[in-house]
Amino acid sequence: MIDRRGFIAACLGALLPAGASAARRPGRPAPQTLDYGPAKLDIYAPDGANNLPVVFFVHGGAWRFGKRGQVGSKPDFLLANGFVFVSIDYRMLPEADVATQAGDVEKAYAYVRANIARYGGDPNRIVGMGHSAGCHLIALTGMRGGLPGVAALILDDTRAYDLAALSRNGGMMGAYARAFPDPTQWAALSPSAHVEGRKHPPTFIAYSRAPGRGEASKAFAERLRATGAKVTLFDGSAYTHMSINRDFGQDGDALTAAVLAFLKASVG
Questions:
Q1: Cα 217 from Cα 155, distance rounded (Å)
Q2: Are 55 and 84 a contacting pair, CB within 8 Å?
Q3: pLDDT averaged over consecutive 10-residue blocks of the chain (268 residues)?
Q4: DSSP for residue 251
Q5: What is the pTM (predicted TM-score) of this model?
Q6: Cα–Cα distance, 79 to 148 (Å, whole number)
Q7: Alpha-carbon Rg for the chain in angstroms
Q8: Preceding peptide of 201 cis, ω within 30°
Q9: How many CB atoms lie within 10 A of CB 90?
Q10: In which region does residue 27 sit, left (phi positive, over 0), alpha (psi from -120 to 50) or beta (all else)?
Q11: Are 7 and 258 in contact (CB under 8 A)?
């Protein structure tokens, strides 16, 4: 367990290269927007990028809202630290159900893996990252083997790891009830149901103080660790559900420091 307090002082200064800042940089390269089939994705790459590790990001929005451009400081920070950054759109409820959305994520990942080398990325060092609904989709596709060759996963704040447990705990309401109306599909759409019987990449799990996030994240981390996977669990109880995503890449942000440490250890 990483304690938010004190971690930043030990890690942020050591991990940020000289001159790197989380703030938005004038002259950041505009993304290349590409059509991967069901939707579009944006690729941000530093000038002269060659064989850099890649962060593949899936936005949140209750499986119903959100856009690939809602990335805050992530591209600025990650490009400054030697990464290519990709953010995808996927089809939204009610046009597409969650199973279809997971398929979109897998198609986008396959497209990126096949094409990222021409934009300076290393197809063998792709890290899947998602927040909220995007966290669920990255966890689901990653656990079920839908992101072949993925080097690591960063899971940022969801309750939807185990949908049956969510229902037992009184959480199957609001956005969750709209996204998962059919109990016969809960197992197939639960990342936890796909954990056993597979080898999983290093996984970083962060949770905010929003109701149920800590309990769900800790239970999922335990289940994943039982398979022998390397799991980093980040206590983000100082964050709201929104700020744990919004603050990423900002100067002095503890989650950013922890994720960067994880990335350096996982993909170099």
A1: 9
A2: yes
A3: 39 34 54 98 96 98 97 97 98 98 98 98 98 98 98 98 97 97 98 97 98 97 98 98 98 97 96
A4: T
A5: 0.90
A6: 24
A7: 17
A8: no
A9: 26
A10: left
A11: yes
